[in-house]
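Exercise: predict the fold of this chain.
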Amino acid sequence: MSDFHQNGIITDFHNLTRRPLAALEAELVDFSARRPMSLILPSLYAELEGPALAHIIEELSRVPYLAEVVIGLDRADREQFLHARAFFDRLPQHHRILWNDGPRLQALDAELEAQGLAPQQPGKGRNVWYCAGYVQASNRGRVVALHDCDILTYDRGLLARLFFPVVHPHFNYEFCKGYYPRIAEGRLNGRVSRLMVTPLLRALKQMHGPLPYLEYLDSYRYPLSGEFSMRSEVLDGIRIPADWGLEIGVLSEVHRNYSTKRLCQVDLADAYDHKHQPVSAEDAAGGLNRMSLDIAKALYRKLATQGVTFSAEGFRTLKATYYRLALDLIEAYDHDAVMNGLTLDRHAEEQAVELFAANLLEAGSAFLDNPGERPFIPSWNRVRAAIPDLPERMVQAVEQDNAAD
């Protein structure tokens, strides 16, 4: 039996990693007859040349319960797409690549743009949104999982644990979020979650009170993890950001649509490491600099839908409150690192907090200056209402792209 406990207001399956993988996979094979499973892999072409993805595909090739694997491929020309087809061909499961930069999917994107329904900017959210539409139209899976393609410590047990709570026939969970310790090579990682999101949520609670939405977000051990699973119908009605605010956007949407009794989180791994984003303090369009801006804007927009009113003065107060809380947390993280024999660069941590504090104001200014901005991609329910046959035509386009020349 896996032991679990209640953390905050969502069910937390903790130490599921102690359960033998063979037992989990055997049950998932049985469950797959009732709830077939699809996996979405949002990928940049560059990740095919990195150290992680080849191993991920090797592990996935041994997974016995998947109905399909859907790869969203960004930033690839035709030659690179053909290489990607060969790269992923080792997967024994039914699999398809969405060549997002190819002429067929670009034509559908232009059709959506003409109706005001297309994602407004490139990014992981846009990639995932198109993959979600394809999965719904392909109708191969009843439960859908997603994870990143840069996980250096990947093993297929992570996927089994991610699927298990949503696929189990005796559970009624609609959505599951993954978490894991952010420790690698003797360092404490996860800077954006530790140094920005956690103190920001606490600062917002100090300023605006214990809002259920903020309490909910604060219940997640690692809200920025890129791993989650859900029933396929959850994909119908969610509206997500196209940028780095994807994870906060998804958590916000499932909170809006479902009782917290139908949501859970699960311990995926004893160790987890992936490609680390640079801080990029001098480049607002890259690294953790861009990520923190996008996350702050996504959070402000969602809070506005909860009735929270923002002002320039309020954002200045938020920055000051956040900054003090973040510095206090650095002290605690430093002690935690010493206790566990880890290294932590106090100077770099404080530099990151200074950048994040400045970006809270920058994101606030962007929020106030663009009241007419359309920040979220429309739901697929709306797309089907406007262009009923577009999902089916997307499936046809993907089939044509994936057919051997």
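Check your answer against the key: Residues 312-339 form the longest helix (28 residues).
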